[in-house]
Structure formats: C-alpha cells, structure tokens
Amino acid sequence: MAPNLAIDAESTADLTDYARVSIAFDVRVVFDVGEPAADRASLVLTERRLERPYVKDYDAVDGDHPTHWARRFDLSKWIAFAARRGATRVGSAAVAFDTGEVELLEGRRDLAILWDLRVAPSARGQGVGTALFRAVEDWALARGCRELKIETQNVNVPACRFYASRGCELRAANRLFYPDLPEEIQLLWYKELPCGAQVP
Questions:
Q1: How far apart are CA 103 and CA 150, in angstroms?
Q2: Tens digit of pLDDT for each residue in 102-120?
Q3: Which residues contact 49 (CB under 8 A, 6 or more apart)?
C-alpha cells in the first residue's frame, strides 16, 4: 500500500464527501479499437493522439454525479471506499453488487462491478488507485464473487492502462452504446477472482 494511506469502507447513504474527489481528466489521446489478430484472443487497442485535447468530467453528465446515484439505483447492497492520507481524502471507489436494475451485473450474484474509481489529481500515480482496487477485490471475494467487471471508455486511456495492469481482460467494445457521444466506445473489462466464500 502507498505510504501513509488508509483505506476504509463507508456507507453509500451520503456520497457528498465521496464526490469531493474530482474524476475529471485531460483527454489528449484515445484508443481506437480493432478486432483481435488471428493469434490473439483480446481486442486490440491502438493509441491515437488528438489534435484538440479536452477535459472529460463524468460527474458533469446528467445523473452520473455520485450524489444522484440513489435516484437511479437501490444502493443498499453497494459499498464505497475512501482513501485518506491523514484527514485528507485522496481517492474514492464504489462497488455495485446484486442490484436487479443494473443491467451490467447480467443478473448474476457472483459478479461485482467497480462502478467508480477516482483519485485526486494531486495524488494520481502514487498507488492510491491500486490500494482502492485491492480493497474492491477483497470485498467482492468475501461475497463469493467470481469476477469483477469494469466499464470504461476509449477516451479514458489512463484507466484502460490501469485496469490492464491489474490483470483485467478487455472482453467487449460497444461502439454505439452512447448515442449522444458517438465518438466514445464502451469498453468492458473483467477480472477473474479466486473462488470466494459462498454468497449468504
């Protein structure tokens, strides 16, 4: 774990403090998605530099701000995590589990979704994301999950690289998933987990 870093689980009842960590990032490069080569099983990501960089902020999308999640979903089986250095929050993560209205869960009770992971800009690249990811894995394992699933987009190159470095496999790319954002491609990553305890 990163030095002087504490990871704590917390309720999803009030996500105001959770959301104080910015999720915004600069988009300077994107991934083009190609079909796998004959000798490869996974999709091929090719980096492309943009002529006009921009800032992407998922929290600015209507309904996507953490304080709005409860309007869309039953969060009673979700969990949030806080990463703190002393009294300063430097990261947050949220996990969706066993929630019928979340289609990404595929109706499974052995699958958890890393719904959101954010690290404060000043703390990025310092192991905070890795520590949060490990906490998420441990929580999912304790509930008998066999896989962890993550949704990203081709415009979030740092996230894609991070999930690949954590052993996640890119299994699907949906080019028309975001009708209002035709330039963005939904990417679905999965990580197989060791068989955990049985779901109660």
A1: 13
A2: 999 999 999 999 999 999 9
A3: 28, 29
